Amino acid sequence: MRPFLLKYWDQFRSSFWFVPSLMTGAAAGMAFATVALDRAKPDEWMQILSWAYTGGAAGASAVLGTISGSMITIAGVVFSMTLVALSLTTSQLGPRLLRTFMTDRANQMVLGTFVATFVYCLLVLRTIRYPDEGAFVPHLSVTLGVALALVSVGVLIYFIHHISRSIQADVLVGRIGKEVIEEVGDLYPGRLGREADDVPIVPTAFEQEARPIPAAKDGYVQTIDPEGLMDVATEEDLLFRIEQGPGRYVVAGRPLVCAHPGGRVSDRVAARVNGAFVLGIQRTPEQDLEFAANQLVEIAVRALSPSLNDPFTAIRCIDQLGSALCRLAQREMPSPYRHDEDHRLRVIAPGVTFPSVVDAAFDKIRRHAGSSIAVLVRLLEMISVIAASVERPGDRDALREQATMIVRKARTEFPEGRDLNAVEDRYDEARDALQAP
Asked: Which of 49, 120, 210, 213 pairs with 42 at a CA distance of 20 to 30 A?
């Protein structure tokens, strides 16, 4: 159940309607509450407040009408500015940044402020009565409407600053890098699974006796419910091996898991297994660390394209990837073997490893670096930095292989000269840093 809740929560927080809807509902409730307070309390206490509205019905109607009309106009302008910023940024740095913009809580709250102020003033406006209709002027509510208008002006000034800053490449790269680091902490909080030297025995006839359970529909595996799979395996006395991890695209009819022994697999079991996999039309970062890193890789690759030729942005992406890899190198990789309460092997879940993330982070950038000597040098410098955090021999081998491929590319691009010497020097430093302690 939790993966499904995470999926819908991600959809809510990455939408422009959720937060504004909540703020609009709160504004409507506040309008009814303040009007009720105006009806219940006499207006004498408002006379002693110099800043409060104490005018008549005509003035109150004019004030609220002006505020509500201006707020809905500004809301349209804000939405247009946001779309322009989105189109400009995504065309240069990649369409997957659209999700980053849509999850920006500041943009959502700015839009919600103007819409909420509009709704509040509109609801209060309908309660004003002229003398021939039984005079009623909600002075407190009108005063609060003016206060909301002043707050909205401040929010507009903040929004202009925020949207101008948020489309800067450095700010975007830093924000995405922070998300990748947070994802590392969420997916690898510490020591997970069993110790590395305690490897369970998988049935020798697993491949012959296991039965694949196919996917019911197409889509990317966004999240997997490990508790749900464990419950099914325990109740049916089965062993599951996950064939499609988060981030993989699955075609309907292809196996999601292999179940052993296959003779115990029924249609009900297959349906429950499919229910533990959340599929969607796009990848999400909840359980997919490579996708989170690929957002930085995409920015770097686009920056290195001949049309942009911006190695400085690519270098900043490498720096952020290095920060995430330093933290990942210090995390214990979870064991792929999951056991029930009786310590019986129930689920085999191959996960993302440090070498696979290193390859995802550096391979495409290295291939697209072309003649950018600064990018190749920075890749080797970052490998030296990451090497200080690496403890596992396999992780050192992955970094060493990357360093070798980088210097090989440099030798191809720059057969001789100062550029090649700079790369060779950084390669020697990286190789020394990767020596086992």
From this structure: 120
